[in-house]
Write a structure and sequence with these properties.
CATH topology: NADH Oxidase
Order of helices and strands: HHEHHEHEHEH
CATH superfamily: NADH Oxidase
Number of helices: 7
Radius of gyration: 17 Å
Shape: globular
Number of domains: 1
CATH architecture: 3-Layer(aba) Sandwich
Bound molecules: flavin mononucleotide
CATH class: Alpha Beta
Number of strands: 4
Distance between the termini: 40 Å
Largest sheet: 4 strands, antiparallel
Strand order of the largest sheet: 1-2-4-3
Length: about 180
Amino acid sequence: MEFEKVIKERKSIRKFESREVENEKLENIIECARLCQSAKNRQPWSFMILKDEAKNNIADIMLSLFEKNDINIPGYMNSSKSSANVIKNAPVLILVFRENDENWLIGDLLSIGAAIEHICLEAVNLGLGSLWIRDTVYTEKEICKSVGYSDLQLVSAIAIGYSAESPSQRPRKSTSEILISKR
Ligand SMILES: Cc1cc2nc3c(=O)[nH]c(=O)nc-3n(C[C@H](O)[C@H](O)[C@H](O)COP(=O)(O)O)c2cc1C
Protein backbone atom coordinates (compact mmCIF):
# COMPACT_ATOMS: atom_id res chain seq x y z
CA MET A 1 0.00 0.00 0.00
CA GLU A 2 1.15 3.53 -0.66
CA PHE A 3 2.90 4.91 2.42
CA GLU A 4 0.71 7.97 3.01
CA LYS A 5 -2.41 5.85 2.54
CA VAL A 6 -1.17 3.52 5.28
CA ILE A 7 -0.76 6.47 7.63
CA LYS A 8 -4.18 7.87 6.80
CA GLU A 9 -5.93 4.52 7.02
CA ARG A 10 -4.55 3.57 10.42
CA LYS A 11 -7.25 3.95 13.05
CA SER A 12 -7.61 2.35 16.43
CA ILE A 13 -9.65 -0.81 15.87
CA ARG A 14 -11.68 -2.19 18.76
CA LYS A 15 -13.75 -4.84 16.96
CA PHE A 16 -12.16 -7.74 15.14
CA GLU A 17 -13.29 -10.66 13.02
CA SER A 18 -12.72 -14.05 14.62
CA ARG A 19 -10.60 -15.28 11.70
CA GLU A 20 -7.00 -16.06 12.50
CA VAL A 21 -4.08 -13.89 11.45
CA GLU A 22 -1.63 -15.77 9.25
CA ASN A 23 1.73 -16.50 10.91
CA GLU A 24 3.52 -15.02 7.90
CA LYS A 25 1.81 -11.68 8.54
CA LEU A 26 2.81 -11.78 12.20
CA GLU A 27 6.38 -12.47 11.14
CA ASN A 28 6.28 -9.43 8.83
CA ILE A 29 4.98 -7.30 11.67
CA ILE A 30 7.75 -8.33 14.05
CA GLU A 31 10.31 -7.78 11.29
CA CYS A 32 9.04 -4.18 10.90
CA ALA A 33 9.44 -3.66 14.66
CA ARG A 34 12.93 -5.18 14.55
CA LEU A 35 14.02 -2.71 11.85
CA CYS A 36 12.90 0.34 13.84
CA GLN A 37 15.43 2.97 14.82
CA SER A 38 16.27 3.37 18.52
CA ALA A 39 18.21 5.77 20.72
CA LYS A 40 21.90 4.72 20.70
CA ASN A 41 20.68 1.75 18.66
CA ARG A 42 19.91 0.03 21.96
CA GLN A 43 16.90 -1.85 20.55
CA PRO A 44 15.55 -2.06 24.08
CA TRP A 45 12.43 -4.02 23.18
CA SER A 46 11.14 -7.54 23.24
CA PHE A 47 7.83 -8.78 21.91
CA MET A 48 5.63 -11.71 22.85
CA ILE A 49 2.84 -12.95 20.59
CA LEU A 50 -0.14 -14.41 22.43
CA LYS A 51 -3.27 -16.10 21.13
CA ASP A 52 -6.24 -18.00 22.55
CA GLU A 53 -6.11 -18.82 26.26
CA ALA A 54 -2.73 -17.18 26.86
CA LYS A 55 -4.10 -13.96 25.36
CA ASN A 56 -7.35 -14.15 27.30
CA ASN A 57 -5.40 -14.63 30.54
CA ILE A 58 -3.97 -11.11 30.07
CA ALA A 59 -7.47 -9.70 29.69
CA ASP A 60 -8.59 -11.63 32.79
CA ILE A 61 -5.74 -10.17 34.81
CA MET A 62 -6.82 -6.67 33.70
CA LEU A 63 -10.46 -7.42 34.56
CA SER A 64 -9.50 -8.85 37.96
CA LEU A 65 -8.83 -5.25 39.03
CA PHE A 66 -12.57 -4.68 39.03
CA GLU A 67 -13.41 -7.81 41.03
CA LYS A 68 -11.66 -6.63 44.18
CA ASN A 69 -14.35 -5.08 46.38
CA ASP A 70 -11.89 -3.65 48.86
CA ILE A 71 -10.24 -1.12 46.55
CA ASN A 72 -11.70 2.04 45.09
CA ILE A 73 -10.95 2.11 41.36
CA PRO A 74 -10.26 5.67 40.16
CA GLY A 75 -12.44 6.67 37.17
CA TYR A 76 -9.49 6.88 34.78
CA MET A 77 -8.87 3.16 35.21
CA ASN A 78 -12.31 2.26 33.84
CA SER A 79 -11.01 2.24 30.26
CA SER A 80 -8.97 -0.79 31.32
CA LYS A 81 -12.19 -2.82 31.32
CA SER A 82 -13.02 -1.95 27.69
CA SER A 83 -9.39 -2.49 26.64
CA ALA A 84 -9.51 -5.94 28.27
CA ASN A 85 -12.65 -6.73 26.29
CA VAL A 86 -10.92 -5.66 23.07
CA ILE A 87 -8.11 -8.09 23.94
CA LYS A 88 -10.65 -10.89 24.38
CA ASN A 89 -12.22 -10.06 21.02
CA ALA A 90 -8.92 -9.79 19.09
CA PRO A 91 -7.28 -12.96 17.73
CA VAL A 92 -3.74 -11.80 18.55
CA LEU A 93 -2.10 -9.78 21.31
CA ILE A 94 1.49 -8.60 21.18
CA LEU A 95 3.03 -7.69 24.53
CA VAL A 96 5.83 -5.14 24.32
CA PHE A 97 8.51 -5.20 27.01
CA ARG A 98 11.43 -3.00 27.95
CA GLU A 99 14.63 -4.00 29.68
CA ASN A 100 14.66 -2.36 33.09
CA ASP A 101 17.46 0.17 32.91
CA GLU A 102 16.62 3.49 34.55
CA ASN A 103 19.67 5.20 32.94
CA TRP A 104 18.00 5.05 29.55
CA LEU A 105 14.37 5.48 30.52
CA ILE A 106 13.22 8.23 28.15
CA GLY A 107 15.30 7.25 25.12
CA ASP A 108 14.19 3.65 25.47
CA LEU A 109 10.52 4.54 25.83
CA LEU A 110 10.68 6.82 22.78
CA SER A 111 12.33 4.02 20.80
CA ILE A 112 9.73 1.48 21.86
CA GLY A 113 6.93 3.91 20.94
CA ALA A 114 8.43 4.18 17.47
CA ALA A 115 8.63 0.38 17.16
CA ILE A 116 4.99 0.07 18.21
CA GLU A 117 3.98 2.54 15.51
CA HIS A 118 5.93 0.44 12.96
CA ILE A 119 3.78 -2.50 14.08
CA CYS A 120 0.51 -0.57 13.79
CA LEU A 121 1.41 0.78 10.33
CA GLU A 122 2.58 -2.59 9.01
CA ALA A 123 -0.69 -4.09 10.27
CA VAL A 124 -2.57 -1.65 7.99
CA ASN A 125 -0.22 -2.46 5.12
CA LEU A 126 -1.13 -6.13 5.53
CA GLY A 127 -4.88 -5.46 5.62
CA LEU A 128 -5.11 -5.79 9.41
CA GLY A 129 -6.31 -3.53 12.20
CA SER A 130 -4.70 -2.84 15.56
CA LEU A 131 -5.18 -1.20 18.92
CA TRP A 132 -2.26 0.18 20.91
CA ILE A 133 -3.08 -0.55 24.55
CA ARG A 134 -1.46 1.11 27.55
CA ASP A 135 -4.25 0.18 29.96
CA THR A 136 -2.07 -2.81 30.88
CA VAL A 137 -0.22 -0.38 33.18
CA TYR A 138 -2.55 -0.94 36.16
CA THR A 139 -1.80 -4.67 36.25
CA GLU A 140 1.67 -4.52 34.72
CA LYS A 141 3.47 -6.48 37.43
CA GLU A 142 0.85 -9.22 37.53
CA ILE A 143 0.98 -9.58 33.73
CA CYS A 144 4.81 -9.76 33.66
CA LYS A 145 4.75 -12.40 36.40
CA SER A 146 2.10 -14.47 34.66
CA VAL A 147 4.18 -14.72 31.47
CA GLY A 148 7.42 -15.39 33.38
CA TYR A 149 9.19 -12.05 32.88
CA SER A 150 9.05 -10.21 36.21
CA ASP A 151 12.46 -8.73 35.33
CA LEU A 152 11.04 -6.77 32.37
CA GLN A 153 8.78 -3.74 32.20
CA LEU A 154 5.58 -4.14 30.21
CA VAL A 155 5.34 -0.95 28.16
CA SER A 156 2.21 -1.66 26.14
CA ALA A 157 0.20 -4.31 24.37
CA ILE A 158 -1.12 -4.31 20.81
CA ALA A 159 -4.30 -6.09 19.81
CA ILE A 160 -4.22 -7.24 16.19
CA GLY A 161 -6.66 -8.88 13.81
CA TYR A 162 -8.87 -8.42 10.80
CA SER A 163 -10.97 -5.35 11.45
CA ALA A 164 -14.73 -5.73 11.88
CA GLU A 165 -15.36 -1.98 11.93
CA SER A 166 -14.44 1.08 9.85
CA PRO A 167 -14.25 4.00 12.26
CA SER A 168 -13.98 7.49 10.85
CA GLN A 169 -10.93 9.60 11.45
CA ARG A 170 -10.80 10.71 15.10
CA PRO A 171 -10.43 14.45 15.69
CA ARG A 172 -7.01 15.98 15.26
CA LYS A 173 -5.66 19.41 16.11
CA SER A 174 -5.20 21.63 13.07
CA THR A 175 -1.77 22.30 11.63
CA SER A 176 -1.93 25.90 12.87
CA GLU A 177 -2.49 24.64 16.41
CA ILE A 178 0.56 22.38 16.42
CA LEU A 179 2.98 24.36 14.27
CA ILE A 180 4.46 27.05 16.47
CA SER A 181 6.86 29.86 15.66
CA LYS A 182 9.84 31.17 17.57
CA ARG A 183 8.81 33.69 20.26
C1 LIG B 1 0.43 5.39 23.85
C2 LIG B 1 -0.99 5.03 23.50
C3 LIG B 1 -1.74 4.30 24.40
C4 LIG B 1 -3.05 3.94 24.09
N1 LIG B 1 -3.75 3.15 24.97
C5 LIG B 1 -5.01 2.78 24.66
C6 LIG B 1 -5.72 1.89 25.53
O1 LIG B 1 -5.21 1.42 26.54
N2 LIG B 1 -7.00 1.57 25.19
C7 LIG B 1 -7.60 2.05 24.05
O2 LIG B 1 -8.76 1.71 23.80
N3 LIG B 1 -6.93 2.87 23.21
C8 LIG B 1 -5.67 3.23 23.47
N4 LIG B 1 -4.96 4.03 22.59
C9 LIG B 1 -5.60 4.48 21.35
C10 LIG B 1 -5.99 5.97 21.41
O3 LIG B 1 -7.12 6.12 22.21
C11 LIG B 1 -6.22 6.46 19.98
O4 LIG B 1 -5.01 6.39 19.25
C12 LIG B 1 -6.71 7.90 19.90
O5 LIG B 1 -7.97 8.03 20.49
C13 LIG B 1 -6.82 8.38 18.44
O6 LIG B 1 -7.60 7.50 17.67
P1 LIG B 1 -7.02 6.78 16.37
O7 LIG B 1 -5.93 5.83 16.81
O8 LIG B 1 -8.18 6.02 15.76
O9 LIG B 1 -6.50 7.82 15.44
C14 LIG B 1 -3.65 4.38 22.86
C15 LIG B 1 -2.86 5.10 21.95
C16 LIG B 1 -1.55 5.41 22.25
C17 LIG B 1 -0.71 6.15 21.24
